[in-house]
Design goal:
heterotetramer; A alpha+beta (96); B alpha/beta (204); C alpha/beta (320); D alpha/beta (412); A: 96 residues; alpha+beta; Alpha-Beta Plaits; two-stranded antiparallel sheet; 2 helices; 21% strand; C: 320 residues; alpha/beta; Rossmann fold; eight-stranded mixed beta sheet; 13 helices; 13% strand
Chain lengths: 96, 204, 320, 412
């Protein structure tokens, strides 16, 4: 949901102070290609996390998993290009 | 009611309605001679005596050597005016060479006073400037300054002469204001200059 | 509270995202990666300020904000003055006992337009006055926010909408301004260049810039797929090629002493590793017109400029 | 009008610039950022002396331009500091962009403007062209009559700007040279009295992106984002908020002025307008700044002649004291509005625009004429003021206006 109910001038903070975190805005629907991770191949080198412009790839320390957050991933493909072990592949959205 | 208004027939004589007890002084000097400082010290001496004052320079780009003016207003009552001085009560000339080039008596009130730094007599100055009315005072300020300070800085001497000629502020207040305005080594030398000029100023 | 240096990949991954997801930079935007990484290098309480530009706009589309830390934007040409005011306020509030924190770092971020061109006066003034702040220039080599117009940071020969690849004048006829050298000439304590491809180097330099007392300047190459007409997935790769071809060598100058950083030092020691400019240029549509028979000679000229500047740098680093 | 007499108060000789610098010092300003420009320079020189002699604990940033000076103040204010700057003429023009940013960010910066003409040709002397240009910039504007009022107004300005209901930058205009460089009697309050009056910087609360109500300042503990991209969906709302703050300011300015009168014994009308012998006046002039003093002197002379003359001085041009103007002029039959700036191609000067506009609602519809005067420091003498009243008398007598807008003191 990227629509916000518009408020009146009496209801909003003064001086244009932002009152919604950007995480409430989902950029995932910009995506044409979806990165798919092969966890078997992945060495947990973290490069995909480091290079992602959108902070859409996180490492879950407890489970040692790389988690792709498709709410924000714009599908740029940097992770695929930079992955040193070819563990990431880009698939057209809507295809299996 | 739009009737006949007094103003439509009367032209106001500003002179007659001049704010009482306001004295306006115009200082003539050259850039760097301290005409503004002189007007300032006189004003600060007057404020010590509980008077209302204004002191301001001629508002131009001041350059060393160029003729410059500054002004002092002293009054028993608050001064509202924020315009130029057109008809000074007192004109002070820091540098005798200005007499040749600057119309120093312009606008000077009929009963006003002209105070000039010069060795020559008041009568000669009166003749030279073709001045029929008012008072003329002279003081050899350059001589006094060179004698005491070793340099021809005449602004403080002229304050002494103004005090003598007009009695608008006491020598004591001028001394206090001078002590405040200058660092001790300079004040120490300038105060004797002021006193000497006060003594040597003459009229005629 | 000073955080220790922890720049291994896993440690970086564990740090919070202070530049939050949901910002609206283009897919494949290297400046966005640079912003994320810079904020991973902070050592404690930090205030950031941006000049007007892509990253300011895409990170704060009202009422949303991507900034987890306190942040201010005021105008285009004055981000260094923002930093000056913030730093001065922090200093005096601390002195008067009105600041809760022991220390607060200040980071100013600006693009090439806001640094090379319209912002250079404020930057030069702030550095001359010696305010303690880190200035990060994310250089995408043109005014991308207004739609790809040439700036003082645009390289020779590059197409932009105001340096079009015309029949008579093929792209930008002038050279890129050596901004980092200009900053070194200010005799400031810390100046460095960085590329997001070499992320550890980038993080370390950002941290050094924060730790040094006084102003620090970090010049980061930041490919813009939209403006460079490049593949969004190649943004990091291109920022690596920039180093490998020596069009954007990595170095740092501490108190005016130049030193090559590892990725460029390798090339200095083994010149055969230096890649040809053509490899870099062909990744970007903005140089496409140079691959025609008519303008092919310009590639040679670009190579000459790059070589000359590289040699000059080697001299400064005592490696010529 | 309560006037403390010379004997009761500690009067010292200060020019307008010095009075401003002293007031800012006594207000314990945290950050001063400024750039020298005639006739404001004395302010930064004096303040530098205070800093270098350890008489004030302030971060003084000597910036490389006025643009950066105001930016520094804005950014420092955003961190929670009390900030002050001063400029004039071209310096204010260079700040123009940031003036809007400052009010838009609701940063309570206080600025002294030593009013000076704008180039070209270059001129260092007084007129109001510089600050009149900025009347729509969202700054509160106070124009003062003398050095004493410059001192008093700077102190009040911090209270006004930093008032939580207002939180707007405030500009105090003092006429270049006529005030900035003119030594006058200034009664100075003890440091402690001033400090107590201005108090600590007040900071309003806002809701941030974490959903918390936090102080409106850049604080790592309670992060906020200031100065975002604000598009057609919300920009208008933010501008409406600014207008609301201006409207509220009117009453608060009066209250703060009253409060200040209690500690100083000095009043300038109701703090928004200052009427002089206007109660039964038929002829009135309206002006801003130091000219009012000269007009008062002439009004006294005219009154001595039996002429029902009066003066209305606008002290706060922004927010415009509409009700005060209507009330003050309700019995007046002919009004001359004096403008020390020109709105080229417009219908008269900016003050005229406002006054005539306000009087449209008056019901009494006095004659209103405009005099453009004093551009580039041209002196406004008593004789010229007298001429204006003579014109007004003629208008009243004949019921006819020859020329609605005139230049006075100009060689034709």
């Amino acid at each position: 949901m990227n629509t916000q109910e518009k408020k009146s001038w009496k209801e909003i903070p003064m001086a244009g102070v932002c009152w919604v975190p950007s995480t409430a805005y989902l950029t995932g629907d910009w995506r044409t290609y979806r990165p798919i991770l092969d966890s078997e191949k992945c060495t947990r080198c973290m490069l995909c996390h480091i290079y992602c412009p959108d902070g859409a790839i996180a490492w879950k320390a407890e489970t040692n998993e790389m988690v792709f957050n498709y709410d924000y991933c714009k599908g740029c493909g940097i992770c695929e290009v930079e992955c040193p072990v070819d563990a990431i592949s880009m698939k057209l959205e809507g295809e299996g | 009611m739009r009737g006949k208004h007094p103003l439509s027939i009367t032209i106001i004589d500003l002179e007659k309605n001049k704010v009482k007890k306001l004295i306006e002084v115009r200082w003539h000097g050259r850039g760097g001679q301290g005409a503004w400082t002189a007007s300032e010290i006189l004003a600060k001496a007057a404020i010590l005596e509980g008077k209302y004052i204004q002191s301001f320079p001629e508002f131009g780009p001041e350059r060393m050597g160029a003729p410059v003016n500054s002004y002092t207003r002293i009054s028993e009552e608050p001064i509202n005016l924020h315009c130029s001085v057109y008809n000074p009560d007192i004109v002070v000339v820091l540098d005798p060479t200005l007499l040749k080039t600057v119309p120093v008596t312009q606008g000077l009130k009929e009963n006003g006073a002209l105070i000039v730094n010069t060795k020559v007599s008041p009568a000669e100055i009166r003749k030279k400037l073709d001045l029929k009315t008012g008072k003329v005072w002279t003081v050899p300020a350059t001589e006094i300054a060179i004698r005491i300070l070793g340099r021809p800085i005449t602004n403080t001497a002229m304050i002494g002469a103004v005090a003598r000629a007009t009695q608008i502020v006491s020598l004591e207040s001028i001394e206090k204001a001078t002590n405040k305005r200058f660092p001790p080594n300079l004040a120490e030398k300038n105060i004797p200059i002021i006193k000497e000029a006060y003594k040597e100023a003459r009229t005629g | 509270m000073i955080l220790e240096w922890k720049f291994t990949a896993k440690e970086i991954a564990e740090k919070p995202e202070l530049f939050m997801s949901g910002h609206r930079a283009c897919a494949g935007c290297a400046p966005a990666t640079v912003h994320r990484l810079i904020l991973k290098a902070v050592r404690g309480p930090t205030i950031a300020t941006n000049s007007t530009g892509c990253m300011e706009v895409t990170s704060t589309i009202y009422p949303f904000t991507a900034w987890k830390i306190p942040w201010i934007h005021t105008a285009f040409e004055n981000v260094a003055a923002n930093a000056s005011g913030i730093e001065a306020a922090l200093k005096i509030l601390k002195r008067k006992g009105k600041l809760k924190h022991e220390h607060v770092d200040v980071i100013a971020l600006a693009g090439d337009g806001g640094t090379f061109d319209i912002g250079i006066q404020a930057l030069s003034g702030a550095v001359e006055r010696g305010h303690d702040f880190l200035y990060v220039l994310y250089d995408n080599e043109a005014y991308m926010n207004t739609g790809i117009q040439r700036s003082g940071g645009t390289p020779f020969g590059a197409w932009t909408t105001t340096s079009p690849a015309g029949k008579k004048i093929p792209g930008k006829p002038q050279l890129k301004k050596p901004i980092a050298d200009i900053m070194v000439a200010h005799e400031m304590p810390y100046v460095a260049t960085a590329s997001p491809a070499y992320w550890i180097d980038l993080l370390k330099k950002a941290r050094k810039g924060l730790e040094v007392e006084g102003p620090a300047f970090l010049h980061v190459i930041a490919p813009c797929p939209r403006g460079w007409r490049s593949d969004p997935s190649k943004s990091i790769e291109i920022s690596r090629l920039a180093v490998e071809t020596c069009v954007f060598p990595l170095w740092e100058a501490i108190d005016g002493e130049y030193n090559l950083s590892a990725p460029s030092k390798v090339i200095a020691l083994r010149p055969e590793r230096k890649k040809a400019m053509e490899e870099y240029l062909k990744t970007q549509g903005r140089f496409r017109h140079l691959f025609t028979p008519e303008f092919k000679h310009i590639i040679g000229k670009i190579q000459e400029v790059v070589d000359r500047r590289w040699q000059k740098l080697l001299k400064k680093c005592g490696m010529a | 009008m309560v006037l403390t007499t010379q004997k009761e108060s500690k009067a010292i000789a200060l020019n307008g610039d010095e009075a401003v610098a002293l007031a800012a010092k006594q207000c314990d300003v945290d950050v001063v950022a400024a750039y020298p420009i005639t006739p404001q320079t004395i302010i930064v020189e004096r303040f530098s002396e205070y800093v270098h002699n350890g008489e004030v604990d302030t971060e003084f940033i000597c910036t490389e331009s006025e643009h950066s000076a105001l930016t520094c103040c804005l950014a420092a204010a955003a961190v929670g500091a009390r900030t002050f700057t001063a400029t004039a003429s071209a310096g204010l023009a260079l700040m123009h962009e940031i003036l809007y940013v400052t009010s838009g960010c609701r940063a309570p910066v206080v600025m002294a403007v030593a009013n000076r003409a704008l180039s070209a040709p270059i001129n260092i002397h007084c007129d109001h062209s510089d600050s009149m240009v900025e009347r729509d910039s969202g700054w509160i504007q106070i124009y003062v009559e003398n050095s004493q009022e410059a001192y008093d107004s700077i102190i009040q300005a911090f209270r006004i700007a930093e008032h939580q209901e207002i939180s707007l930058p405030t500009m105090v205009g003092l006429d270049g040279f006529f005030l900035s460089h003119t030594l006058e009697n200034v009664s100075v309050l003890p440091d402690e009295t001033v400090r107590k009056f201005v108090g600590q910087r007040q900071i309003p609360l806002v809701k941030n992106h974490e959903g918390k109500l936090v102080p409106y300042k850049l604080d790592p503990e309670n992060p906020i984002t200031i100065g975002p991209l604000d598009l057609h969906d919300y920009y208008f709302e933010h501008k409406r908020q600014q207008e609301e703050a201006m409207r509220k300011a009117s009453e608060i300015i009066r209250k703060i002025h009253d409060e200040y009168a209690n500690i100083s014994g000095r009043r300038y009308g109701n703090g928004r307008v200052d009427s002089y012998r206007l109660e039964d006046a038929e002829l009135a002039t309206i002006c801003l700044g130091s000219t009012a003093g000269t007009v008062k002197t002439v009004v006294d002379q005219l009154r001595a002649k039996g002429v029902k003359a009066g003066l209305l001085r606008i002290r706060t041009f922004r927010p415009l004291p509409v009700q005060d103007i209507l009330e003050a002029l309700q019995n007046v039959k002919a009004v001359a509005v004096m403008d020390r700036s020109c709105s080229f191609g417009g219908y008269g000067g900016p003050v005229f625009h406002e006054i005539r506009h306000v009087l449209y609602d008056s019901g009494t519809h006095p004659h209103v004429v405009n005099y453009i005067y004093g551009l580039g420091g041209r002196d406004m003498s008593q004789l010229l003021v007298q001429e204006i009243y003579r014109d007004l008398a003629r208008i009243l007598e004949t019921g006819k206006i020859d020329k609605s807008i005139q230049f006075i003191g100009l060689r034709e």
